[in-house]
Specification:
This protein is an alpha+beta fold and 718 residues long. It is built from 25 helices and 11 strands. Pfam families: MMPL.
């Protein structure tokens, strides 16, 4: 592989104009495709096979007028006063006039007025699903009740679910990444070229993703996740190759040869690291959850583009940049002063000398950070976690104030039978049983379709949508109505869908974790020809995941230090965060593992003692890995400043995970373990060694090939 990449790097360097033109043309074509074919994203989480989804499908088939999106307009009188029907009537009338609304219920006729008479709920039913509601309809809905004075009118319900907006806050992370690049390279040209290369890759990946959005249903989080990952790995992969190129130039190698060899060596590691991220993300499809499959494949595609751009467009940019990628002193032809050992060598010596206390401190510390993870709860976010001041949040808070949080967690029991008589009997029996269920506040009288074969029971729980008591109530309701004969009864609604999604993802997480761990052991065994190194890497990954979960739960669920991340209301973590975090952190952890340990293996194979090889690996690569980790942390951390709680928690968890894995696990615990086991760390049974293919990530076979062809060139390169 390294020989092929060497040739690719030299070709791209020498044919820089053609390569750059191809990528820019591809970017332009994809931007045009976005304009022509892009569609909208959705916040609907479809979960085939779950009870809530079966109920929604039955509603669409048997009771279509009740299967569309819903809204809830909350009306409140001033403190100390009561509402009267005449004052609320204009709100009902204007809501009913919104295009696409089939019904707006007068709260005084259906009993949706609070006990103190100060609050009322106007339930609004649309004729189409959430994904089909237009922006114009949503704007008209927001204006319903605008003619009313002296009353507070807030607009909520699922109709107010909107996609997270990518604004300027995440740009802070890119600016920090640019500063890190300048400090690392000592050259504005090298830093700017690396950043530009990554941004073009992100542009191509995101344009391709949006171009497909017209035929593939994307959740609103998917593009943000792809952007987050594309930026982080795109900058890091370009950083790794540029750093190696500068190293070869400083050693006196010709520029085109340096570009080829950097692509063949560091590029091989980039291919492996990128492949692990792609495989881990694509592996989300084995969970069998459609929206998660699309999220994983979309992010994997963006990472794959980042790898291709780093291997082809970056050498072309290096050709354009000339020697300006070097610091000013080296460009002026000054003799380099004798290289001083950096902090990587010093840190490597400290870790190998104090390996036992460092190992104990690291494991105990990460274990302590992981403790809150045992209280992990999962849920889909609701309007109660929306940005303060947003319409959805204002409506949620006003509803909770007037009626209790349970009115924001409405459930629907769908009763289906062969005829109207059986449906009526089953609905009555179900209503009685549900009313007696712990955690249920009230059950509304049944609504039936025209044929009388399907009935809806609206259920109001006592607690909020993401409260554990509501989850218990849903499970208890399902257990009670399961024994009713002659009808099929299923519980659905946004709250029930969220519970089903969380349950299915929680069940899938251990299976996926085992898949990822097994994959990491196999891949690292191929790369490092060792048994211990893969096992150690997998155990380190578990420490990373556990501590990251623990810190994220402590802040986002338990509320400790929540103000530091701008979190208004703590609550359960979003259902798909843990499984996404496992897949993403796995790939990123393998990046640092490969770049650090591959140099240790190279020096050990060339005759260094195990301890010295460990120190050399840290000394040569600690600087670039530190820069890469800081860049990733900055990019991910930039998304913490977004208002959307899903994006905020994802950015925070990924930033913490990268920091823990890079600085605690890979740069501290890994060298400590390597020095402790010595030569045994590189042991591989001979039969297994013969059976495994040689991936040659560090380009050893490439160097032998070049040495045989042009000995003097390779001698200069070394």
């Amino acid at each position: 592989m390294s020989t092929l990449l060497y040739r690719l790097g030299r070709f791209s360097f020498r044919r820089r104009g053609r390569v750059a033109a191809v990528w820019l043309l591809l970017l332009a074509l994809l931007v045009g495709a976005v304009a022509a074919f892009s569609g909208s994203t959705t916040d609907k989480f479809v979960m085939p096979g779950t009870e809530s989804q079966r109920a929604l499908d039955a509603l669409a088939r048997e009771f279509p007028q009740a299967s569309g999106a819903t809204g809830a307009i909350v009306v409140a009188a001033p403190q100390g006063k009561k509402l009267d029907p005449a004052a609320v009537a204009p709100v009902v009338k204007e809501a009913a006039a919104v295009p696409g609304v089939v019904a707006a219920l007068d709260p005084f006729q259906v009993g949706a007025v609070s006990a103190d008479g100060r609050h009322a709920l106007v339930q609004v039913q649309f004729d189409r699903g959430l994904n089909d509601v237009t922006a114009a309809q949503r704007d008209a809905y927001l204006k319903a009740g605008s003619s009313v004075t002296g009353l507070r009118v807030e607009h909520g319900g699922e109709i107010m679910t909107t996609a997270p907006e990518v604004g300027g806050s995440e740009g802070v992370g890119v600016l920090i990444a640019a500063v890190v690049l300048v400090v690392t390279f000592g050259s504005l040209v090298a830093a700017g070229m690396t950043l530009l290369n990554a941004l073009i890759g992100v542009g191509v990946g995101m344009a391709g993703l949006f171009a497909l959005s017209g035929v593939v249903e994307l959740t609103s989080v998917t593009p943000v996740l792809a952007l987050m990952l594309g930026l982080a790995v795109g900058i890091d992969y370009s950083l790794f190759i540029t750093s190696r190129y500068r190293q070869f130039l400083a050693e006196g190698m010709e520029r085109d040869e340096a570009a080829g060899l950097a692509t063949g060596t560091a590029g091989s590691a980039v291919v492996f690291a990128g492949a692990t991220v792609v495989i881990a993300l694509a592996g989300l499809s084995v969970v069998g959850i459609p929206f998660l499959t699309v999220m994983g494949l979309a992010a994997a595609g963006t990472v794959a583009v980042a790898v291709l751009v780093a291997l082809t467009l970056l050498p072309a940019f290096l050709s354009y940049a000339g020697t300006r990628v070097l610091p000013r002193g080296q460009r002026a032809g000054q003799e380099a002063s004798p290289a001083r050992e950096g902090f990587g060598y010093a840190w490597g010596r400290i870790v190998t000398r104090l390996r036992v206390p460092i190992l104990l401190a690291g494991i105990v510390g990460l274990g302590a950070l992981a403790l809150p993870a045992q209280d992990l709860r999962l849920a889909l976010p609701d309007a109660g976690t929306a940005a303060p001041g947003s319409p959805a949040r204002e409506a949620y808070d006003l509803t909770s104030e007037g009626f209790g949080e349970g009115f924001n967690a409405r459930l629907i029991a769908v009763v289906t039978a062969a005829d109207a008589k059986a449906t009526t009997a089953a609905a009555g029996q179900a209503a009685a049983l549900i009313q007696q269920t712990e955690g249920v506040l009230a059950v509304a009288p049944p609504q039936t379709n025209a044929a009388g074969t399907t009935a809806l029971l609206t259920i109001i729980p006592k607690a909020g949508p993401t409260d554990a008591a509501t989850e218990d109530a849903v499970h208890a309701i399902r257990a009670k109505v399961a024994d009713i004969k002659g009808a099929e009864i299923a519980v659905t609604g946004a709250t029930a869908v969220g519970i089903d999604v969380s349950d299915k993802l929680a069940d899938a997480m251990p299976v996926y974790l085992l898949l990822v761990i097994g994959l990491s052991v196999l891949l690292l065994m191929l790369v490092f020809r060792s048994i211990l190194v893969p096992v150690k890497a997998a155990l380190g990954f578990l420490l990373t995941v556990g501590s990251t979960f623990g810190v994220t739960v402590a802040i986002f669920q338990q509320g400790h230090l929540a103000d530091l991340v701008g979190l208004d209301v703590p609550g359960p973590l979003v259902s798909f965060l843990p499984i996404l975090l496992i897949g993403i952190l796995f790939g990123l952890a393998m990046d640092y593992q490969v770049f650090l340990v591959s140099r240790m293996r190279e020096d050990y194979v060339h005759g260094d003692t195990p301890r010295q090889a460990t120190i050399n690996g840290m000394g040569h690569n600690a600087r670039v890995v530190t820069a890469a980790a800081l860049i990733m942390t900055a990019v991910f951390g930039g998304f913490v400043f977004m208002d959307d709680p899903i994006i905020k928690s994802m950015g925070f968890a990924l930033a913490v995970g990268v920091l823990v894995d890079a600085f605690v696990v890979r740069m501290t615990l890994v060298p400590a373990v390597m020095s402790m086991f010595g030569a045994a760390a590189w042991w591989l049974p001979r039969p297994l060694d013969r059976a495994l293919p040689n991936l040659d990530v560090e380009g050893e076979s490439l160097r032998h090939h070049l040495a045989a062809a042009v000995p003097e060139t390779v001698g200069a390169g070394r």
